[in-house]
Amino acid sequence: MNRLCTICARGGSKGVVNKNIKLLLGKPLIAHTIIQAKKSGLFNYVAVSSDSEEILSVAKAWGADILIKRPDELATDQAAKLPVIRHALKTAEQQTGQTFHIHVDLDATSPLRNVRDIHGAVNMLENDNKITNVITGAPARRSPYFNLVELNTEGYVELSKELSTSIARRQDSPKCYDMNASIYIWRREVLLEEDKVILPKTALYEMPEERSIDIDSPLDFDFVEFLATKRGEL
């Protein structure tokens, strides 16, 4: 079974300028994800998609097999991620002449995952034919049934989701998870045919909070750097 790994890294980051190539423990941020993908031994190819020639050059230096120049229309702030990933899959298949049955997308801004997480999420999909795709997430600190609220049309607070009976503790509410944007896995036909990530038979691979930080701000980067330094590696 052929597997493709993609890493999609846009050059126009605003929250953390040039975050995909910002140094983390002496390596560009994107390099950590490329190394994890390679170390897993799961993939026929590791492809990096970017609108930035600088990011693509760094990716090549750190071992990416396929470099994909992203079209301008897929590199805007408003561009959705699914079309970018589909473009990467189709381009990789054109360049290699191969069909990839399993497509794994690793986010460069979530470098605290480890190789065991990648293996575990891939195994979850491949060991159950009913599963269409897999996302990763960590147990949520807030629950829509207990302490996550919205403002209604009149501007007053109400719980995001109501249960038929009231509960006194968050732990008594249904389990909820924060998507951590770390690992996404699809069967090829699902990725090409569906326009949503969450489908009726999407499975969740659980990761701990300490491996689930997605870098979207300078503070996030500081947290990741602190945790990575504390354990001496990513």
TrEMBL record:
One of its GO terms (molecular function) is N-acylneuraminate cytidylyltransferase activity. Pfam families: CTP_transf_3. SUPFAM superfamilies: Nucleotide-diphospho-sugar transferases. Coiled coil: none annotated. InterPro entries: CMP-NeuNAc_synthase, Cytidylyl_trans, Nucleotide-diphossugar_trans. This is Posttranslational modification protein. It comes from Lysinibacillus alkalisoli.
